[in-house]
Amino acid sequence: MMLGSLTSRATGFVRGAVVVAALGTALLGDAYNVANTVPNIVYILLIGGALNSVFVPELVRAAKEHADGGAAYTDRLLTLCLTALTAITTLAVLAAPWVVSAYTDYTGAQRDLTVALARYCLPQIFFYGVFTVLGQVLNARDRFGAMMWTPVLNNVTVIAVFGLYLVIARTASTAGEVTDGQLLLLGLGSTAGIAVQALALLPSLRAAGFRWRLRFDWRGSGLGRPVRAAVWTLLLVLVNQVAYWVVTRLSTSAGVRAVAEGVTEGVGYTAYSSAYQLWVVPQGIITVSLVTALLPRMSRAATDGDLAQVAAGLSRTLRTTAVAIVPAVFLFLVLAPQLTGLAYQYGQVSDADAKAIGWVLAAFAPGLAAFSAQYVLSRGFYALGDTRTPFLLTLVIAGVNAGLSVTSYALLPARWAVTGIAAAYAIACTAGLCCTALVLRRRLGHSLERTLGTHLRLGVACLPGAALAYATSGWFTEQLGGGLAGDASGLVVGAVVIGLSVVVLASPLRIPEVGELVAPLTRRFGSSGRHRRGR
């Protein structure tokens, strides 16, 4: 499962690099990124958050309590969700101009381009929903691999689409230079990637023995419980999206303002979203993979009233994920320019553009551990069937994020506004985590043992390696220049140095989780070496 997630993120790197190389980081790239992000925003806002948080606990509960193992209940729930997705997608496509206006203040050709792209991209809402629904059915049956692997197909599809665009539209750099045919390729090509990702789950569902039929007999079938639970989740998502709306409006406005002030590098929404995509990679590979497997087990323990087991699962997951997440924080802090140069400095992206994304990534970095831990702890509430408390806690995160983002936009020059907005989110995640941990500890009646100490000791273990990584990466840049060779060399050596620092200091600092992670790798490579010598 983790290998699938890793492969997905690796191809996602390539996808991000190709997209940015094709469109750049200025206004053309901003138009596409807004249009391609809006479907996910609308989906999450109206139904996606409810599916992610409510679906698995409800399916697990139905499987334990219903005589048919929850088969009829699952059929009804899927029918309800797909009906809602069809209606939402249709309305969103019709409302594309108003949706784009809500997230940007674009005018003229820039607005027309964004609206046209949004019309092609908004059908993604339906396929996002299909992917989530079918994936959660698999997760409830303890089949986790397919949902981690099928995004690779999405990435490959989009890479092919934008590779073709690079060939046929190499010189297009502004909204007025993109033809209708090229818009069709970009928009429908991006939607095709999501469709392939969703439909590729069908063979795994058949292999799991799942058969589905439409059932509209919803009345008196017990669907009221997930619908009521979903209300709080929808409110949670609404609050998050208000904060995200603030960020999108401010970052797109910052990009326009920067161009007007003569700033040549892209410092608007594309810089923010590109840095964010890199920032969430460790959480997506490690945290999401572990929590995906953890949630069904926690839901069963919560159904049985075993809160100690729920707390133990959360504590173990937090400590295990920290082994990868905390070193990633330091890597992003000291090696951000090398990472963004390696990931994005191609095609229309200059060295200055890549460095601008690097500053945004470094601003995000301190909040990664809190972002990851918040994701884990929120699933603890969902396992308990509580969607109200996460909503109240989200008010803290969204409020801090929106408030500090507005402050950054108002006080900082256009060149640095988006960097400040990224730092605002890092601070908001940390504030939210402190509140969440306190509330969940009281709810469970059990402490999440050793988690804070593990994070702090890992931070100490990273410090010597981070300092040395910063120095060595600078040396490589001086010797090899700021291009691919210098960035790749500095990044690889710096990452290895940080990793070795953690491994070497794990024992004296008493961080057993590092040994637990390294031991299987040592045994595997050790046995492989003995096997080769035996030949």
From TrEMBL:
It holds the Pfam family MurJ. Keywords: Cell membrane, Cell shape, Membrane, Peptidoglycan synthesis, Transmembrane, Transmembrane helix. It comes from Streptomyces tricolor. The chain crosses the membrane at residues 12-32, 38-56, 77-100, 120-140, 152-172, 184-208, 229-247, 276-296, 317-336, 356-377, 389-410, 416-440, 452-476, 488-506. Signal peptide: none annotated. InterPro entries: Lipid_II_flippase_MurJ/MviN (IPR051050), MurJ (IPR004268). It is found in: Cell membrane. The keyword Transmembrane applies. This is Murein biosynthesis integral membrane protein MurJ. It comes from the Bacteria. The keyword Metal-binding does not apply. It is a multi-pass membrane protein.
